[in-house]
Design goal:
Order of helices and strands: EEEEH
Helix content: under 10%
CATH superfamily of one domain: Golgi alpha-mannosidase II
Shape: elongated
Number of helices: 1
Strand order of the largest sheet: 1-3
CATH architecture of one domain: Sandwich
Largest sheet: 2 strands, antiparallel
CATH topology of one domain: Immunoglobulin-like
Length: 94
């Protein structure tokens, strides 16, 4: 895949026929997430390209594989100075 644009380009090639294979980028040897049933999303850099081997033996990166069990949900709260939380609202937040 190659981009001849001067801006980044999002692409979604239909790779269903290669389901279960792991793309390995041939210049750096980086593995990408395993190909599944959905279209494969990539962003090509300006005037950039990816050259892949679609491997049946390479392992997908660990971060790309869903893990069983509940995930840790992180929340961010922005509190203005002088705000006082009391009662049920305070207990919920704590």
């Amino acid at each position: 895949m190659a981009s001849v644009s001067r801006t980044a380009q999002a692409v979604e090639p239909d790779l269903n026929e290669f389901e279960g294979r792991t793309p390995v980028e041939l210049i750096g040897g980086t593995t990408f997430p395993r190909i599944g049933q959905l279209s494969y999303m990539l962003t090509l850099p300006p005037f950039g390209f990816y050259w892949f081997q679609l491997s049946t033996e390479a392992e997908a990166p660990p971060w790309s594989i869903a893990q069983a069990g509940p995930g840790l949900e992180l929340l961010t709260f922005v509190v203005r100075e002088g705000l006082v939380l009391e009662g049920a609202v305070r207990l919920s937040l704590e």
